[in-house]
Amino acid sequence: MRTMRTNGIWRMGNTRQLTLTALAMAVASSMVLAGLLSGCVNVAGYTQPTLVRVIDASYVAPAINVLAEGITIAGNVGQGTISPYATLAATTSGSVKIANAATGDSLTTTSNPFLAGRQYSIYLTDIGNPPTSYTVSVITDQQTAAASGHSDFRFLNQAIGTGAVDVYMVPNGSTLAQSIPLVSNLAVGASFNYVDFASQTVTMVVTPTGKTTPSYTSSTIYLGGGEVRTVLLVDAKLTSNPPILAYMVSDVN
């Protein structure tokens, strides 16, 4: 209750009625605001995007443009290129076109599902030894971090002149002779699954299968855990017994 003065007389006012009216207005306003916020959070038809990148391992293809669903995700690239991931709308039948960067002419095409929340690599490789033509495929990349204290590596062998290889992760302070291969007899054209191993400071060494003379030795690789990496192996040049080049890229972490 409250008092008010009318014609010099103090009267009692109904504050309860005023309070209930104000409360009703506040509740109505809050309901409108909640509805607006709900509309911002829950967007009808929203679908997670997909991540797509390019790995060019071809010796014979010209400089290329790569289009996924009509969108250029890598332009004027050549062998050894591993592009950053592009974000695309998910689709169950994604189109992929490899085009000559100079002329725009289509060189090869394929299609592949690009599912929501997944990661993919459009992978250009060669056919034949020595290679005379090229082909494109789509491979699925790991999208979750490796377990704590572990690292996950995948090796793609396109060292055509070298052939099958062994891949070592030599711990710091150790030697190749004291180590065993992380991956043995990795054939050309193989898309090896991710390999899990305990994280530590290592040197990556690649040898022809069964040989002890390195064709590639990396700089020191510091691994703290959780890393997911893809490594592309190619010949430095197409001669007999050439050295190998390795291109390493982060998939996660």
Q: What multimeric state do the chains show?
A: single chain
Query: What's the CATH H-level homologous superfamily of the largest domain?
Result: Carboxypeptidase-like, regulatory domain
User: pLDDT below 50 for ≥5 consecutive residues: which ranges?
Assistant: 1-42
**In CATH terms, what is the architecture of the largest domain?**
Sandwich
Largest beta sheet: what is the strand line-up? 6-3-9-10
> How many structural units, i.e. domains?
2
Shape: globular
Task: Say what the CATH topology of the largest domain is.
Answer: Immunoglobulin-like
Give a short account of the largest sheet: 4 strands, mixed
CATH class designation of the largest domain: Mainly Beta
Helix content: 10-25%
Strand content: over 45%
Mean pLDDT: 85
Structural class: mainly beta
Q: Distance N terminus to C terminus? A: 65 Å
Radius of gyration: 30 Å
H and E string: EEHEEEEEEEEEEEEEEEE
Structure summary, number of beta strands: 18
What's the helix count? Answer: 1
Task: Describe the structure concisely.
With about 250 residues, this protein is mainly beta. The protein is about 10% helix and about 50% strand.
Keywords, separated by commas or semicolons:
Immunoglobulin-like; 2 domains; 11% helix; 49% strand; 253 residues
Describe the structure.
The chain is mostly beta strands. It folds into two domains: 47-141, Immunoglobulin-like (Sandwich), CATH 2.60.40; 144-253, Sandwich (Immunoglobulin-like). Helices cover 11% and strands 49% of the residues. It is built from one helix and 18 strands. Strands 6-3-9-10 form a four-stranded mixed sheet, with no helix packed on it. A four-stranded antiparallel sheet has the order 5-4-7-8, with no helix packed on it. A hairpin with a 2-residue loop joins strand 1 (2-6) and strand 2 (9-13). The longest helix is centred in the N-terminal third of the chain and has 27 residues, at 15-41. The radius of gyration is 30 Å and the shape is globular. Residues 1-42 have low confidence and may be disordered.
